[in-house]
Amino acid sequence: MYDEQYWKEEYGLDRLVRWLNHKLATILIRQIHTQKLALLDVGCGRGLFLEALEGKVAISLVGIDISLYALNEAKNRSTTDIIRASALDLPLRKDIFHMVTCFDVLEHLDIPLRAISEAHRVLTRGGIYCITTPNASLRKALMAFRIVKVIPSHKCEMSTLEVKALLENSGFRILKLLCCIRGLAGWFTGRLPPFIDRILTNSLLLWLRIPLGPCIFVIAKKE
């Protein structure tokens, strides 16, 4: 499913995405107070976020994805370790990463709780888990009015309360949970001009809190 065509539809405007990933990387690194940061990006895709992290701090980076096409792209643009594996079964030792990122991945999984538990396992005590995922509460309301369509690759969309419960039940403490503007491309496919659609999808409005925003953004800490 996650072939070349999928990634071309998901990620246009590479220059814009790269610039925004650099901004996001800077913000997230501030959450970790250590000189040597080990970070795992689960669902790393084509490696744009890993590319943004390189050289920012004394850092050890690992990316994981199941898409062969995406992983080949990631290896071409990044010198980090790239592994083909599932978020549900990480081939890594426990307690080795200071941060795990998981952007727009949980909704693609049948059992998101297992992926969250795996992230908890590989994080050190006090490590940071950062995720984004679509806000199911808003999507269901919009689908009722036929404003948005079902996304075939999404297997488990969740509300903010469901995300919060899964994280806390897995041993995480929520540091920040907000609804924000992000991920509009998949919601309004064909309804917005492509250029505007991509800017909205990847823009720094990620950090703008709005009631019932389309994206859930969470930073949590392993207790």
Which labels suit this protein?
223 residues, alpha/beta, Rossmann fold, 7-stranded mixed β-sheet, 9 helices, 7 strands, 37% helix
Descriptive overview:
The protein has 223 residues and is an alpha/beta fold. The protein has one domain (4-222): 3-Layer(aba) Sandwich (Rossmann fold), CATH 3.40.50. The protein contains nine helices and seven strands, in the order ααβαβαββαβααβααβ. It has a seven-stranded mixed β-sheet with strand order 3-2-1-4-5-7-6, sandwiched between helices. Helix 4 links the parallel strand 2 and strand 3 (81-84). The relative contact order is 0.15.
Topology:
Layout: H1 4-10, H2 14-29, E1 36-42, H3 48-53, E2 58-65, H4 68-77, E3 81-84, E4 97-103, H5 112-122, E5 123-134, H6 136-144, H7 160-169, E6 172-180, H8 184-187, H9 194-202, E7 215-222
Parallel strand pairs: 1-2, 1-4, 2-3, 4-5
Antiparallel strand pairs: 5-7, 6-7
Name the poorly predicted regions: 183-193, 195-210
Number of helices: 9
- Helix/strand class: alpha/beta
Going by CATH, the homologous superfamily would be Vaccinia Virus protein VP39
Name the CATH architecture.
3-Layer(aba) Sandwich
β-strand number: 7
Structural domain count: 1
Helix content: 25-40%
CATH topology: Rossmann fold
Binned strand content: 15-25%
Overall outline: globular
CATH class: Alpha Beta
Rg over CA atoms: 16 Å
- Helix/strand order: HHEHEHEEHEHHEHHE
What is the makeup of the main sheet? 7 strands, mixed
End-to-end gap: 36 Å
Which whole number gives the mean pLDDT?
76
